[in-house]
Write a structure and sequence with these properties.
mainly alpha; 12 helices; disordered N terminus; Syndetin C-terminal domain-containing protein; VPS50; SNARE binding
Length: 278
């Protein structure tokens, strides 16, 4: 304020007193490059620095608690419960975007749409979309190794990335199977063959165990063999599947085995489950 009397200078002085400057992303940080896994190195430095800082606060908690006046202790407890304890949880949303872009899930859906599932003989060879998906995971693994040469990727970060990618892939598989318009018993057996091939090769790429959402896919494929009564119970017990995915089981899987009235009853049961969400 001593620098001048004008409002402009006075305003500049006030600006310098702001508590926390507005955040901005450095122009050197590129979050759109697939080769660097969408700025993974920078994401790791930022996130793991915050996690490290939270760990230091954890180790200081007893010391800070003994020094804090009794009237201020509730604020300290709130800081630990609402801020410090949640630092590691930031990993999932921050690294999720990397996993969502690292694998071309849309390409997999398109390839699955071109597969003929109403076959009449048991196949011994899996479909091409499985190989394409595995190549995507191999490329992801290589890029992860490239980034780790510049910035060490801690095991918890690697696990979160692999978990996200595998979950998204498995959920895309179920969505692809739910898009099928015609399917035979042999076609459903081919789905099982495809998924087993995917799991076998995937387990060689990652140490993550168990494979996330493995049961999510297997349960959906096996639901093809359910009877009408079993399907009604399945619909009630498996809320993890979307309305569309459940409806596909009824229309495609049971469609040729049950009459129109029974099918409408099962579709109504699906609609009843979905109604509270609206």
């Amino acid at each position: 304020e001593a620098l001048g009397e004008t409002s402009g200078v006075h305003g500049a002085a006030e600006d310098r007193k702001e508590k926390v400057p507005s955040p901005h992303l450095s122009q050197m940080v590129v979050l759109t490059n697939s080769g660097t896994l969408y700025g993974l190195a920078q994401r790791v430095v930022a996130t793991e620095s915050l996690v490290f800082l939270a760990e230091q606060f954890e180790s200081l908690q007893f010391h800070l608690d003994t020094m804090m006046p009794a009237a201020k202790k509730p604020f300290l407890q709130q800081f630990y419960s609402q801020t410090v304890s949640t630092a590691s949880e930031l990993r999932k949303p921050i690294y999720w975007i990397v996993a969502a872009k690292a694998i071309d899930y849309e390409q997999m859906l398109l390839l699955m749409a071109g597969v003929k599932w109403d076959i009449r003989e048991i196949m011994s060879q899996h479909n091409v979309y499985v190989d394409v998906l595995l190549k995507e995971f191999e490329q992801f693994n290589k890029r992860l190794e490239d980034v780790s040469r510049h910035v060490r990727i801690p095991l918890p970060v690697s696990n979160v990335l692999w978990e996200h990618c595998i979950r998204l892939a498995n959920r895309t598989l179920v969505e692809g199977y739910a898009n099928v318009k015609k399917c035979s018993n042999e076609g459903r057996a081919l789905m099982q063959l495809d998924f087993q091939q995917f799991l076998m090769k995937l387990e060689k790429l990652t140490d993550l165990r168990p494979i996330p959402d493995k049961e999510f896919v297997e349960t959906y494929i096996k639901a093809y063999y359910l009877t009408e009564n079993d399907m009604e119970q399945f619909i009630k017990n498996h809320r993890e599947y979307s309305m569309k995915q459940l409806a596909n089981l009824v229309n495609v899987c049971l469609g040729s085995h049950i009459n129109k009235k029974a099918r409408q009853k099962l579709l109504a049961a699906i609609d009843d489950i979905d109604r509270p969400k609206r």
